[in-house]
Amino acid sequence: MALAAKLQLRQSQSLVMTPQLMQSIRLLQLTHVELERFIEEEMERNPLLERAEPQDEPGEPEPPAAERTDAAEGDWFDESESAWSAEAMSEKLDSSLENVFPDDPGTTERLAPDLAAQWKSVGAGGGSGEGVDLEDLTAARVSLRDHVGEQIALTFADPASRLIAGELADGLDETGYLSVDLAEIAGRLGADASTVAAVLVECQAFEPAGIFARDLAECLSLQLAQRDRLDPAMRALLANLELLARRDFQALRRLCGVDEEDLLDMMAEIRALDPRPGMAFSGGASDAIVADVEVRAASDGSWAVELNADALPRVLVDQVYFNRVSAKARDQAEKDFLSECLQNANWLTRSLDQRARTILKVASEIVRRQDAFLVHGVRHLKPLNLRTVAEAIGMHESTVSRVTSNKYMLTPRGVFELRYFFTAAIASAEGGEAHSSEAVRDRVRHMIEAEAADAVLSDDAIVDRLKADGVDIARRTVAKYREGMNIPSSVQRRREKRALAVAGR
């Protein structure tokens, strides 16, 4: 078989992911905070992008000086600075300002001109146009390390002990627990293990009570010891916290040697303690949720779906600046740079507009399908998946998934993530319309909250009740929903409800 070179034509189709297309896809899944950060970075790189600040509302024009009238025309209450000078005031009052108003700030203008100018700026709302930022005047937030460091300086006079205490403080996590090994600190500092342990004992007496603990039991023990409530029965209870988590009250009464009423009192004391004492000094602030879409009732009985103006970034392309700078470009490299900046800026504005339109389209379809939820509540939440919404609005399922990720909707019933409205379907026992898993979960929670101490519902009993209401559900599904809501089993709930009933007698 001979080998020869040939020319052949072949037709094929392929999807090319350009950088602009990848940017548009990325913008869909960004949250409000991430989008603002991304735009700030783009504005630093692209000189043609600028913020579209809302224009100030036009106020009432100031009347001309000829039309202004004073409170008492001809009186010495004049707005000119000379009328308020010290010399003019002294002539009108026939006395010195120091004698009439000894504490008046007018005397400060001559003694401390800088302080007087500062007072004048504050009193006039900021003469330079910049107001006083009160955050600059507030005290800085005290961290856990700073709080502990002050107590170390007051407690330890020996430099060696102070050094060991500083190493222990560096080993505290944000909850206040000691996360380092004492033997490691002793080996690193060349100190005896007993010395490090003795310093730890003194550090465990610091405020807030419970810091420098190595586990939960020790943290609770330190707080109870400060309250003088660490008796042998309480020590036995803290040594068996796993039984307390399982609500095995009978075994706890036997180990602690107390009756049921005393055990309930001990449990109440433990609930009043702080298992994470260091979190009071946590400096992290959570970001407030900014709703991307607002839903409100319209006058015709329908729902009005609008984009939240505060969540929409306002970005403009400065064409005037582009024309002025491009006309003065010196070489082809500068022209290419400006053309690229203009192209990227136009693409960004179109991508942001497309992102807003896509979010609004998806949110409108969700509101149309979940109308019963907005009117009647979670019990009427309907099953919904991404494919159903994607087919209804003519988009790909992956696009809907990106749009609903970390986006929030403000409704008359509260703020919900768009993903909240997408729930699995549970078949109906009577062959009717399927039920939403979130609605079934809400029914299970209300059944357990309404149960009596002598009639605790098992998972099988909950299944029977749901089937009587037309919900075809398995027992393992009910158990999964119950565990997901941190609700204990029927055996544990029966023990706790009986103990509370006995204590209430």
Shape: extended
The count of β-strands is 8
Give the helix level as a range of percent. 40-55%
Placed side by side, the strands forming the largest sheet appear as 3-2-5-6
* CA(first)-CA(last) distance: 102 Å
Low-pLDDT regions: 56-84, 100-109, 122-129
Rg value:
36 Å
Tell me the strand percentage band. Answer: 5-15%
Structural class computed from helices and strand pairing? mainly alpha
Mean pLDDT: 79
Helices, by number, come to 24
- Tell me the major beta sheet: 4 strands, mixed
Task: Give the oligomeric state of the chains in this entry, treating copies of one chain as homo and distinct chains as hetero.
Answer: single chain
Please tell me about this protein's structure.
- By secondary structure, the chain is mostly helical.
- It has 24 helices and eight strands.
- The strands form three sheets. It has a four-stranded mixed sheet with strand order 3-2-5-6, covered by helices on one side. It has a two-stranded antiparallel sheet with strand order 1-4.
- A hairpin with an 8-residue loop joins β7 and β8 (435-436).
- α7 packs antiparallel against α8.
- The longest helix has 38 residues, at 332-369.
- It is extended.
Q: Topology of this protein?
A:
Blueprint (H helix, E strand, L loop, with lengths): L18 H10 L3 H14 L3 E3 L34 H8 L3 H4 L7 H4 L1 H11 L20 H12 L3 H12 L11 H8 L3 H11 L12 H11 L5 H7 L2 H5 L3 H8 L3 H12 L21 E5 L5 E5 L7 E3 L1 H8 L5 H38 L1 H6 L9 H8 L3 H7 L4 E4 L2 E4 L7 E2 L8 E2 H13 L9 H10 L6 H10 L5 H15 L1
Parallel strand pairs: 2-5
Antiparallel strand pairs: 1-4, 2-3, 5-6, 7-8
Helix pairs in contact: 1-17, 7-8, 8-10, 9-10, 16-17, 17-19, 19-20, 22-23
